[in-house]
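Treating backbone geometry as a discrete language has practical consequences that deserve illustration. No coordinates are needed to read the tokens, only the vocabulary itself. For completeness, the protein is quoted in full, as a sequence line and a line of structure tokens:
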Amino acid sequence: MEGGGGWRGAMGTVGGITRTYGLQHHFARPDLENPPQDISRALLLRIGRYMWPYGLKWLAILACVLTSAGLAVLPPLCVGMIIDQAIPQGRTTLLALLAGAMVALALAAGLIGVLQQTLTVRVGQGIMFDLRNELFLHLQRMSLHFFTRTRSGDIVSRINNDVNAVQGAATGTLVSIASNIATLAATSVAMFSMNWRLTLLALAVVPAFYMPSKVVGGIRRRLSAQTQESQAHLLTFLNERLHVAGALLTHIFGQGKNDAQAFSALNAKVRDLNIKQSVVGRWLFMILSVFSAIGPAAIFWYGGYQVLQQRLLLGQLVAFAALLTLLYRPMVQLASVYVDVQAAVAVFERIFEYLDLRPDVHDKPQPLPLPQTRGHLVLDHVGFAYPLPPRLPGQDQTDPVEPEPEERFAIRQISFQILPGQRVALVGPSGAGKSTLTYLVPRFYDPKEGVITLDGCDLRDLALEELRRHIGMVTQETFLFHASIRENLLYARPDAGESLMIDACRAANIHDFIASLPEGYDTLVGERGFRLSGGEKQRVSIARALLKDPAILILDEATSHLDATSEYLIQNALEKLLRGRTSLIIAHRLSTILSADMIVVLQAGQVVEKGRHEELLALHGLYATLFAQQFGKVLNLSGENGLHKQGVWPNP
């Protein structure tokens, strides 16, 4: 590679090891992601923060490691004494004691190993528990914008796959490092005490263990990051295609074969990356095995010569050779640990990417409490533009610099107020900004311009949890958890009693249906409530809102996909739900429009008309046009002359 700087330049200066073993051309392909950087001290300290709460257990694990390392060097010494003293001198008692000592040492080492493993597993699972909880709580605080631009499969993969991958680094890797260092130190002391010349010869090959592990570690770290990302893509695909709605869509459009091919491609990518990781590890093992064979060969050659010259006892050579295994095995494992740490760091970095995200909407340092509210909402010159998508990693380095696109406001200069208990209906063509406006009241987003106040307080000064406690929403797309009807209802108010829950369901005209089910309120609704009809799901949603009993209600009341009976039941339930509440309604029904205290007409993100039904019809503007398009045919069939007199239908 040209140039001496950077990762690729560094690979050309490691003595040709990667070329010798085929690693550079086999794995360092140009289509892989950017090369990994050195592990920073700040990153290590951040990872260490998750280890700190388990300090006492770590000390106990360290004590087990040190004890095991000390015990590991004693059996070879026993063998040496058996060969050089017990057998030649015919000391049967000493022979029995040494043989018994070897058994006792093995038993002690086994018991200590069980204790160490128990502590290690407890620490590892504890760290995973803490990390998964922190990640889930953090994601719960993320703004709606995060979930609209992030695939659900990727989110699940970070919480599940990535956190699971942390366990090996959190416990196995650290314990392996401590154990190998302790074994290395104890073995070196024992070997120097026996023959310092042989020890220096054995240590001469140690530096050769480091160079290949560094190169392979960088490759493994990059491959690990790619593998986790590919697994997230695969999980996203599975979640979408094997979800009940996705499966239905696949059958409707006959895309089973194409989906199978797409899944096979994703699956193949995961397979290939896992194979590469395994092969990289095997290459490293092969390289280190060659180096670890050089040392024993040199020891047996030089040590055997000294035995022939009667400068070294045979038992000492045998014991030294046994200790040599304890010397090189930690070397090989420490070299492999470097590779594992590089791979684990990539997983931690993926998790920290999410933990470093900051929600677009958040509480001020000292938000105002909101124990009660009258429900007086004022929107004063409100404007909002959806956040721009982030630039792709590396885009600013590989692509020409382009000017940032200007923010496109979804709504602008919106001003009106809703008095306590009033109903305000939002009407307008698709894309006019109606849904966007309803997202600002519960602070799913904050306005870019203007201010929204509740009882005179800027919404941004209020605590999010306090604000949303007073707001209920019934959306057109009703979502139910894969749980019982009871659990779905109580999600709005976990402390509600049975009588309150039943009263809410009676008011929503859904109690009789629930009672007719074999398991009643304990009936499972299925994935996203798929076992219920659209009207039944919407009435459960209304009952859930009634159970919460909010002072402010936001409602998207579309019922175009429902039959006449369901629509009648829902309309009756909504009337009970709206009674006495400050309501902001995306109106689709004639009855809602006629009963609204004020109708706000939106077009292209701006208020073009507002007033009561009769006032807006008299203007012969956008509202009159939309009204005629939506309800004209129905009203003509109902009797045009009578409706003219009632003021529902405009006179020609």
Summary: The chain has 25 helices and ten strands.
